[in-house]
Here is the input.
Amino acid sequence: MKELFWIFISASLVSNFTLALFLGLCPFLGVSGKVATAVRMGMANIFVLVITSLTVSALNTWVLPHAPYLQLISFIVVIASLVQIVEMAIKKLSPTLFRELGIFLPLITTNCAILGLALFQTNRGYGFMEGLVFALGGGVGLTLALVLMASIRETVELADVPSVARNMGLVLILAGSLSLAFMGFAGLFSS
Amino acid sequence: MENPRFELTASPHIKGPDSTPRIMWSVVGSLAPVIFAAIWYFGPSAVFVIAAATLGCVLTERVFGPGGSLKDGSAVITGLLLGLTLPAGIPLWMAFLGGIFAIGLGKLIFGGLGQNVFNPALLGRAFLQAAFPEALTTWPNVSGPWWALRGDNFALPFMSANPVATVTGATPLGLMKFEGTHTELAKLIIGSTGGSLGETAAVMILLGGAYLALKKYLDWRIPISIFLTVAVLSQIIHVFMPEEPGALFMLFSGGLMLGAVFMATDMVTSPTAPKGAWIYGGGIGVLVVVIRLWGGLPEGVMYAILLMNSLVPFINRATQPRLFGTGKEAAA
Amino acid sequence: MSRRTTPQEDFIRGIWKENPVLVQLLGLCPTLAVTGTVDNALTMGIATFFVLLGSSVLVATFKSVIPKEVRISAYILVIATFVTIADNVLHAVVPEIHKSLGPFVPLIVVNCIILGRQEAFASKNTVGRATLDAIGTGFGFIITMMIMGSMRELLGNGTWLGYPLFGAHFEPWVIMVLPPGGFFTLGFILLGIAWWKGRTAVPVRPRRWPHGVTTEVGGSTS
Here is the structure.
């Protein structure tokens, strides 16, 4: 239990998925203009991450021991088809969300966070429960980073940012500052 | 302005006698007792370190800032505060670099005063902490002759400090965390303990804070909510886990006083609504206790404030007062 | 892409004018994650170069056979195949670096640069031009990785490719090899580029008309 708790804290705060492991940067630096969108984007990611984790556990248990060279390709194919299903579901259930996330939904397929989760979970030898908690923690961490960035950017939009920093410069400095602040969680609950 | 135009500004339209420079220079004044205590305990090193940090801030503001922005005094405050959070023995070039970082990436990149998200002084401090962890946690011993340097302050730029030059001590929080020993409360209050320049003398900090609170230049809700949260939370934990320190030690040790009174209350990076101030202060308090008791670092005030700074836009959104005349639904 | 480009342009534009990372802001994940040392940055750059080149050639060769509806999936499968090859080669040749890169080698699959070039260029052009384009873009990526890796290793460790450059007393800036240092370094480079571009742009200046009307003249031409 303690181990699981630590995995969750680690993925969400200590080595935050986005701010320390650099997973899910595309949505973090791209979509984060509006808080409401960021929350929903985060939710979509948590959902896909959890499904991914379950799939990866299954693949790691039953398929990959027999064919290790298929690891990468099988991850991609299975995850991509899953995202396709999610996309269709969202299109059906919430057309507004589908419109707002625009091009980013298909990009979840090629989102580092999803494949990254699969690879990190495999690399660290996480089992079923550990993988699930890792996915949840990572998703929460990703959402946290997205929402913080979105709310900050909403505010900063009103500032007279110097022209050199208008585009990506300021966003990266903000990301660095957030990452710096998250260093305060270093070693949390590790002893 | 030559061509007549309507001047469009945001509220408030009614102006009081308090201008930005006036408030800022009052804050500088309120830091005087803290600086005095720093010099009293840490000798000439304190003067050098604070001066180097301030110089870094002021020069950066002068070179990259909008013309005349030095006069509002905010760069000086950032520099003084940054200097006060540093240990006495660090090489001066590090303090100077921290000042450049604080003003350059902490403030000017957002467009200058009033637009930044993170407290510049703390951002500079966090940068230095991450860049030079060893130098930033080498605490000089307070005993020894007053006039002696407390470390290798004059290490050449980009070079390490000579470790022999520093007689190192430990901070009360470090002693508590890693060796399990407590420091007497009286020592913590008057400040004769190891630590950063301006964080040890609790009584001087409270003096400056009280002055600013009376002048209404800081929102009293923020320090009070931080103190209350830290006190209540740590006392509850102390009851259940007696090995953890009690409320008084947690309040008077480390950078809590300095952070709560001078950093968290920064007008730019703290919430605007009263309700938001309580949430913000409470959040800082909780994070401080969590990081101090369960984190890998002995002290977490700096990170707690930076983390809550990043939440301020969110808090402001959530606690926006309802517009007069609109219904509940409209506000949501 | 209305105007036809010359082969030289195909090759040269990816290096600076349309640099995949610094101008198009693609492939930020590896640029930030593995540039703590020059070793890692260079290895990652070369691996990505190889995957990009291989996929571009293959995709350009078979572009008429790949059905339009499943083209993205087909590209990804092609890319994943080359990444698997690269991963295994790195594992055999430079096991140390391969270990420190960890999951970031397989993550080349989701590097937007590669998929982006397949969709935007390789699938529409001849094999030769796709090759030139892939080499140019790949070089642009390697150069960026080297700039990032050099800045971070020099300041963060005082070394370049492991050779100490600043003497024994240099105080390393540990932050540079930590995650925030990655963000700050890239942010700094982008600020520098924006400053450089802004320096040569036509400045905005007010032009006064009678009756107190002011308009703005000039401004960026791009």
User: Anything to note?
Assistant: Chain C has a mean pLDDT of 87. Chain C has one domain: 7-200. The first strand of chain C starts at residue 159 and ends at 160.
